[in-house]
Amino acid sequence: MNTADRTGEGVVRLEGRAKVTGAARYAVEHPLDGCLHAWPVPAGIARGRITAIDTERVLAEPGTVAVLSHENAPRLGEPEDPELFVLQSPRVAYRGQYVALAVAETPQAARAAAAAVRLEYAAEPHDVTLTGGHPGLYAPETVNGGYPTDRERGDFDMAFAASEFRLDTRYRIPPLHNHPMEPHASTAVWEGPRLRVYDSAQGAHAVQSELAALFGLEPERITVVSEHVGGGFGSKGTPRPQVVLACLAARETGRPVKLAVPRHQMAQIVGHRAATEQRVRIGADGAGQISALAHEVVTYSSTVREFTEQAATPSRTMYASPHSRTTHRVTRLDVPTPSWMRAPGECPGMFALESAMDELAVTTGIDPVEIRLRNDTAKEPDSGHPFSSRRLADCLREGARRFGWEGRDPRPGTRAEGRLLIGTGVAASGYPVYVAPARATARAEAAGGYRIEVDATDIGTGARTVLAQIAAEALAAPLDRIRIGIGNSDLPKGPVAGGSMGTASWGWAVHKACRALLRTLAEHSGPLPEEGLSAHADTSDDVAARSDAYARRAFGAQFAEVQVDMDTGETRLRRLLGVFAAGRVLNARTARSQFIGGMTMGVSMALTEHSTMDAEFGDFAERDLAMYHVAVNADVPDVQAYWLDEEDQELNPMGSKGIGEIGIVGTAAAVTSAVHHATGVRVRELPVLPESLLPGLAEWRRPAVV
Known about the structure:
26% of the residues lie in helices and 25% in strands.
């Protein structure tokens, strides 16, 4: 075996050439004879019902084939996710909800037809505004991920009141939106009694399961293909309305149908990170040791389905805290249903927690790195279990060394270059280690080489390359003899690409199948049969048998340097550095890409991404990339990612933890802490805007007195 092919090496993506040459087909790029195109019609009110729909003139237009609505769409079965119950009722739950679908011969004709559909409504009063004291707030049974809504240890009120230092702050994060490069898109074709769907999804089996329930089919009669997916960030982790609409239209017209969600409709349709208001209270002694920690979260969901961002959960696990209170409260508003967005819960929660830790460092006069080290813990506070591995302290120390933290003057505003104020900040990060059961098949082929199959999804992370490396190492075979089949519901079932659990889950099954194949080959004599020899693996029992005596998390530390123009309040990132402990890194090239991608998204969250809800119209104002600003190359001039060697025997056969999400966790807090160090202005509501800084920058702009 070539040592350059083994896990840990920076192997180039196997599908790289196919992508840059256009050979890799995405959801709406598969050529199909007689294919139609669909364009959705969004609701024009925030709450109410449709009283009339006029499609007569639209249907008379050349190229228009059909217009579907609740009046004529085929009836669907009850899905697990009510958001998929499209075109079944005149009720409108939020502005932008899909209420009709135009189907035409070309994309242009479909768009024109959708614009020409006339609807009349009976509008009802709506509520789309989250407030900390909203009368509809309640405690959900659980929050996202199945975590308990509230947790309390010790006596927080007593310990907080008795603390030498007390911090009581509130942090606000606006709604944030998923904008993967490839929009949510689907192509559907009925082949007699069978349904074939090409879908931009993070899990083909998840889509297959929902479509089976909706259309009353056996799952085996549905094939979902998600071989190449242009990003997802969690928003493609569950099926979205466009795949159901494409299937409905294809059934109704008897022809294949393609549907790509228009960019300006994505904010309403594909899920988003809900706004949160978070109160953090920390009590500590003179040495900076935390005795009391409370993290209380207020957020919202829709009237369609409950989804509660688990933003308080990081405070249950990150630092030693003998007395703790963490709570979540949610209200149901007339808005689209929030959903997964990179590091759900952990990302907004860690912004609040790590910002508060920086404020505690300033209050106590202790270095921000040191105060985190003093509150490190070998046991998870919430469960009392030891961590299977925890190198947070090493990440902080190594990051400080590489960044040049030593000798930092803690006083705000002490560094300037002309009218630019320079500051540095740090934040820690943590993310749970998840793993789910998966199945895989490994086959030794008569013609030579090996075929590995698992319904994994590569959303740009390099999953197929890493899985091939895992197989090559397990089989002691060269990488060029490994062929990988992924992204198809006809393959052995795997979990969605989400929660940073994909490689750990799929890779475990691949490793197990390959080891089983080696045993099968050892027992076989003579040439291989024409069909080859195969071995199958299912890790359900392995995952269930994992010891629950350990807490498993990945950790990291991010360091940021920013400049703030004292005259304009404009903030720019100068450099960003992260050091992570995430188990065994299986591909150095793709791992670095994931770490940098996560950190870049964190910078974007801190400095540019912002969404506002128009209270009168019940609509997000920033509806495309011209108004919703994501970070671009000019915003991230110097981003570096490093990792520590970490051996952990309590994970999986590869020793790997997830890396797709930990990069974003903590980054925004590092940036805003750097802004405070530069200016003395504490930003507690994202993103950092000039209008938030200018009042506090007045003293820097005041002429010196001679």
